[in-house]
Amino acid sequence: METVESLMGIEGQIRAFYYDAWGMIDHRLDFGARRRRPPNNPINCLISWFNGLAYALVRNEIAKTHLDDCISFLHSSQEARASLALDLSEVFKPAICDTLIFEAVLREQIKPEWFHQEDQVCRLSELGRGSTLESWVRKTEERVQGEPSFREVIRQEALALERDLLGIKEYRPWRRKI
């Protein structure tokens, strides 16, 4: 890898292959091309919504450390956002966001009234936001078999990064146990 941009390009290609594979799991997860601004169908809408929640959660946990959330490793600090939160949230999106979407689709929890769709733009309704927020809180706050919650894991990840940057302890990334 010669540049951060080339690394991010490869990451983008991998993510596209990953999203393309969703339809192989279940036809209801086949949402076509990823569209962000604005999302054009319910699955794209849910991806954008949950990714935004992940970004906000990670940003909140970074704020509890001494890290500067504008200094990052991958995302450009010129994006006028908390770039470090974008970097760290990438680690947790599959474990939290994508899992919530899979659960909602495969358990047939998604309701048509969750969405407002017109002119190739799909937005969550108030009912959809409320229902998905309940799932989000449950997923990020619950402790399973004595393990820390995702919120706690994210805070631990930010602290591990801080300790590494301060030369206290080498950073060892979080890995999901399967």
Q: How would the global form be characterised? A: globular
Radius of gyration: 17 Å
Strand content is under 5%
The name CATH uses for the topology is Four Helix Bundle (Hemerythrin (Met), subunit A)
Q: Looking at this structure, what is the CATH superfamily?
A: CRISPR-associated endonuclease Cas1, C-terminal domain
N-C termini distance: 30 Å
Overall CATH class: Mainly Alpha
| pLDDT averaged over residues | 86
What is the second-level CATH architecture?
Up-down Bundle
Query: Structural class of the secondary structure composition?
Result: mainly alpha
**Count of individual domains:** 1
User: Segments where pLDDT lies below 50 for 5+ residues?
Assistant: none
- Order of neighbouring strands in the sheet with most strands: 1-2
Number of helical stretches of at least 4 residues: 6
GO biological process, one term: maintenance of CRISPR repeat elements
Protein name: CRISPR-associated endonuclease Cas1
Keywords: Antiviral defense, DNA-binding, Endonuclease, Hydrolase, Magnesium, Metal-binding, Nuclease
GO molecular function: DNA binding; DNA endonuclease activity; hydrolase activity; metal ion binding
